[in-house]
């Protein structure tokens, strides 16, 4: 796990820097999170490990699953991952990206447990 995080870190930092420069942190986060969830699936992991499929085709399949809201820069980023055979790092890249985003935006995810039903105020 630590090795995957180490490999994913430079890609996550590059993605975060690009998203920050383009002022598209939310868009990048959404796409990377969905792509990370897709590539975390065991069947997809086996497909990514398959030498019989071209790397660019693998990236295009992921992009099709992500949807239409993919910017050209995100598309290019995924193609670079494919070229470097790093698509399997997407779950780690997404997690690191979202950590960088939370630090930058100074947000924290919390879970509230209450004995009583909470109102929406």
User: Main sheet?
Assistant: none
The number of helical elements comes to 6
- Give the distance, in angstroms, between the N- and C-terminal Cα atoms: 41 Å
Mean of pLDDT? 90
State the order of secondary-structure elements, H for helix, E for strand. Answer: HHHHHH
Q: Name the structural class.
A: mainly alpha
- Give the C-alpha Rg: 16 Å
Low-confidence stretches: none
Number of strands: 0
Shape: globular
Percent of sequence in beta strands:
under 5%
Q: Helical percent range?
A: 55-70%
Please characterize this protein's 3D structure.
By secondary structure, the chain is mostly helical. It is built from six helices and no strands. Helix 1 (2-21) runs antiparallel to helix 2 (25-40), helix 2 (25-40) runs antiparallel to helix 6 (90-105) and helix 4 runs antiparallel to helix 5. The protein is globular and about 55 Å long.
């Amino acid at each position: 796990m630590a090795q995957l995080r180490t490999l994913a870190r430079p890609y996550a930092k590059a993605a975060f820097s690009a998203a920050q420069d383009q002022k598209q942190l939310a868009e990048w986060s959404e796409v990377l999170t969905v792509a990370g969830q897709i590539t975390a699936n065991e069947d997809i992991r086996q497909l990514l490990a398959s030498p019989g499929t071209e790397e660019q085709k693998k990236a295009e399949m992921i992009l099709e699953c992500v949807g239409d809201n993919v910017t050209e820069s995100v598309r290019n980023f995924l193609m670079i991952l494919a070229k470097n055979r790093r698509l399997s790092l997407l779950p780690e890249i997404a997690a690191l990206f979202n950590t960088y985003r939370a630090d930058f935006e100074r947000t924290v995810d919390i879970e509230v447990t209450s004995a009583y039903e909470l109102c929406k105020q």
